[in-house]
């Protein structure tokens, strides 16, 4: 499921004329938190784990990045999200892989203690279907 698009600005760029890796990870973490909130009726989520963050290609100022996300695991108090980031080039309508990673988010109460996730089934179904479709396209490519 496409969750967000952002443009990379000059102030986001480091000495190598590319987006800082830490900046990309921060953006991905925000998208993971927003997605967890969209999939449930819970107000708060914390990032518990980030794994397999792999950078495939650099991002430069002026490029548009797209965040695709899929739910790979649903638990009682946590969910695991697979994020894929691509650069979208509107002139050519082409995309290139930038990075991917797995984020584990835990629902928490006001005291920041784990609480059960109150799923929105219709949103989960949409996200799962979109993730399966992206996986199918990736296998055919």
UniProtKB/TrEMBL annotation:
Q: Which InterPro entries match?
A: Cytosol_ACT, HOTDOG_ACOT, HotDog_dom_sf, Thioestr_dom
SUPFAM superfamilies per UniProt: Thioesterase/thiol ester dehydrase-isomerase (SSF54637)
Q: Which residues form the HotDog ACOT-type domain?
A: 1-111
Q: Which UniProt keywords apply?
A: Hydrolase
| Domain of life per record | Bacteria
Q: Name one Pfam family in it.
A: 4HBT
Under the heading Gene3D superfamilies, the entry gives:
Hotdog Thioesterase
Similarity field: Belongs to the acyl coenzyme A hydrolase family.
**Protein name, UniProt field:** Acyl-CoA thioesterase
This protein's species is Geothrix oryzae
């Amino acid at each position: 499921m496409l969750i967000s698009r952002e443009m990379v600005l000059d102030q986001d760029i480091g000495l190598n004329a590319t987006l800082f890796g830490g900046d990309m990870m921060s953006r991905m973490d925000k998208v993971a938190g927003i997605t967890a909130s969209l999939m449930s009726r819970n107000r708060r989520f914390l990032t518990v784990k980030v794994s397999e963050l792999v950078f495939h290609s650099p991002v430069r100022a002026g490029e548009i990045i797209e965040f695709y996300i899929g739910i790979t695991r649903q638990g009682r108090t946590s969910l695991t999200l697979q994020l894929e980031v691509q650069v979208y080039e509107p002139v050519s309508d082409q995309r290139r892989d930038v990075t991917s990673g797995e984020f584990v988010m835990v629902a928490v109460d006001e005291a920041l203690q784990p609480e059960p996730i109150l799923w929105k089934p219709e949103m989960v179904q949409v996200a799962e279907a979109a993730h399966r479709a992206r996986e199918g396209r990736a296998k055919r490519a």
